[in-house]
Amino acid sequence: MVRSDEEHVFDVVVVGGGPAGATAAADLARGGHRVALLDRDGRIKPCGGAVPPVLLQEFAIPDALLVARVRSARIVSPSDRKVEMPIDDGGYVGMVDREVFDEWLRERAASAGAVRLVGSFQKIEREGLAEPDRVRVVYDDRQGHRGTLRARVVIGADGARSRVAQQCIDGADRMPYVFAYHEFVRSPAPQESADARRVDFDGSRCDVYYRGEISPDFYGWVFPHGDVTSVGTGSAQRGFSARRAVETLRAASGLDGAETLRREGAPIPMRPLKRWDNGRDVVLAGDAAGVVAPASGEGIYYAMTGGRLAAEAAGEFLASGDARKLALARRRFMRKHGRVFWILGMMQRFWYATDRRRERFVSICRDPDVQSLTWQAYLHKRLVRKRPLAHVRIFFKDVAHLLGLART
Q1: Which of 156, 179, 222, 257 is the most buried (most CB within 10 A)?
Q2: Residue 51, exposed/middle/buried by CB under 10 A (0-12, 13-18, 19+)?
Q3: For 324, which DSSP code?
Q4: Are 362 and 210 in contact (CB under 8 A)?
Q5: What pLDDT is recorded for position 402?
Q6: How many other CB atoms are there within 10 angstroms of residue 100's CB atom?
Q7: What is the C-alpha separation between 32 and 364, in angstroms, rounded?
Q8: Helix pair 300-320, 328-351: axis angle to 10 deg
């Protein structure tokens, strides 16, 4: 461990130990760099906890970290119309407990050689350093003692309201957010769900509610995590009571009588920042960079991908001394996922705007082509190009819904 009254020299200081920061720290440490991973103690991010199977493959995550495998989703409209969306061919959505999952990632980074530090980031300083190519990271440890670290690169992975981003990246203070809130409740026993008519719950199914009373511009969710279940919602609308909306959602799903284990809330960024680096010695990753998928709010896979790309860019900067390499993190991410983010953003802005449109959106989700292509894109994290006729059919069906010609 590093004592807070000493200044230590690293190649990279990663601020934030969530999926993005822990992934970046592990990759850089495995590459032979001296890395410090600075993270606040005891923070659990509110999160539905869904991860696609491709995440387990790309980031070597053991199956044992999954607390549940979801085999279908159910979409619920404002009029209480329910559309089942089974995952074909044995596919599934994995569910993780963020408290356990994030700590496992941090421990893996430490095992790779990263130095773990518990503390709260305060600021970056450049004055008074004998080495002009380094910065000083100032933090407070859990006892409130001031500590400092020196590094050539800082990776800011400290969440949606990132202090690193707001100090170092132009435009970070204008990031738009959805505020997410969820409650972890005790999952009903199978016999309870079967016997009690009010309890509408399936431990292998995710429920997604598109109702203005539950969210005027996002959605509500019931995501099973084995013995516990996440019930939550989000909205960017000021004055909207997420807590009251979750009460409504719990009543609608019959979970209002379930034991509440914990309550959590946090902002979720609505779009990637236009710049992730300062052109000098700082690059962002994860929520700090704004990499949460619009419409779905999915963040874990994109956070880990962004963390990996930030680590690659930092490594190339360390090898070359060329600060322009830091911009590669965003460029590579947007090349791979930017089109999907754009499509999802357009979808959210249009289809989530009113209950009338939400009703039509749920009707679209009944379509087998829509379901198949949606699951393929989600599970494999790429746009599906192998079924052009299906895309054509979906296009004309969407036009019919937009013009009000299709039946809901």
Answers
A1: 156
A2: buried
A3: G
A4: yes
A5: 40
A6: 12
A7: 50
A8: 160
